[in-house]
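Person: I keep going back and forth on a fold encoding question. Show me how you would write down a chain together with its backbone fold. Please set it down just below, with no commentary around it:
Helper:
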Amino acid sequence: MQPRDEPAAQILASPGRLGDSRWNAVAAWAVVSGIFVAVSLWQTPLPGINEPHYLTKARAFADPGWCERDFFLQSANAHYVFFAVVGPVTTWFCFGTVAVIGRILSLSLLACGWNMIGRRLGLNALGSAVAASVFCGIGATGNFSGEWIIGGFEGKVPSYGFALVGVAWWLDAWTTSLRRKYALAGVFMGAAVAWHPVVGMWICIGIAISEFARLVSRVVLRSKLSDEHVADTSDAQPDIGRTATTSHLLVNSIVFVLSAFVVALPGLIPAAELVLSSTLEADPVDQANYIQVFWRLAHHLDPSTFPPSAWLHTAVLLTVCLAAIVFVRTKSIADRWYPLLWLLAASSVVCAAGIGIGWHSKPMLQLPDWQWRAALLKFYPFRFFDALLPITASFAVAAAWDKLRLMKLKQVTARSVLAAALMALSAAVIIVPGRQHHASYTPAAFAEWQRACEWLRQNTSADALVLGPRESFGLKWFAHRAEYVCFKDCPQDAAGILEWNRRLWAIHGWSESSYQDESFDVEDTQRLHADTGITHIITRRLGPFTQPPVSTFGMWRVYAIAGGE
């Protein structure tokens, strides 16, 4: 008779039982999926900060007549696969439903890749759940360049999901040198590129750098490695990749690249066309790059604007990550972790290059070479490191926790393991506080904003063109009406960026000139309508207007200007 509660470590390591059974793998995936989805819904209420941006664009992709006067929705599509897949769904269900479905599916895919990597790093099901909880906790404390994974639904979330699955297969390929595993890794990395070209390409580049470094080290140390024979003193399989020939590794790398390239084409071709097919001269393109990198997205792309807290957070996280890896390091564990550490090193190189390119102590326009700096920084060189560091740190902390657990509590039971997993799930939800929908709105103001948008949806024609406030968030999501310009909704092609900037300045100029007599009269609004086609204004600060609003919702006022209803 076996004892009622066997030691957890024994159960988790027993072949065909809790640690290795297919059912247990499904249960482990469900736990990590639950952690990710719960934290997403708790931390990021609907709609998430980027969900109106992406889902309304997807709706317009599938239904070009919807809000057809909105110039952002008519701009170039950088995420073709996301829009092609999600767009039709937005015509069947409301945006909120699509967002929830998208979060569940994409985070479940992320959990699949997460558990696959955890198993390859030597973690059991509980270790992967602990790592997932740690990852969510790290995300709540900050980041380096504003990159996040657990939140709303947009193209990068399924991209990261496919990428984690691809990285897991690549970890296998690194140690076994099996060509089919390189092919599988390439297929999933290609899918990551297709869903979000920037996210997927950086991870592919990181894998390429890692493989190149491996080949170089193989050439440099070939004579030493040819005489090296590592005795198999553990149950782990020998590192077959170490004994593979250089030509074999080179062929495997080519297999990876080709499989990734073919699968990535549906998303890669439209993205390449967006970057390469501009008909603008060099100067307007440079101007668009400057607007995008050093103004609109400086918080993601200009390292000189990153707050000190971001640098401190990253330094502490990197220290914790390396300390945890050193703590758990043994010969067998080191072989499992080497490729992931190479990948982290590659991301660090890319990030350091981005810092070197983007750092400036005086206004960027005063630098003689700002044009090429902006052209490179617009490809988000920091997001790869900003995503991979917390992922690696989470697995490292979980591995250290597992080692401490086995050192100090050798008779931990399955029941206590389950209790710890539930505590980890609860902690992941509790420690991540819910955020407001948008930093510019109080909860009351946001509720009134939604009521005002619903009024626009119910009481204006489908071809209405609305001028919202600078802090406008989700107007198309709630009102289903076109916006003249929205600060949040900046296109990604050069021509679209310049038009977006022109419209912002046009509204600013109209506001300045109209307010010279300290009010906005009918003549001012008629001029605005004639110049822009705007039919309605929704505002809480702009004014005073001499004409009465057609409706008010708390602090929000809706005006129908000349030509409106």
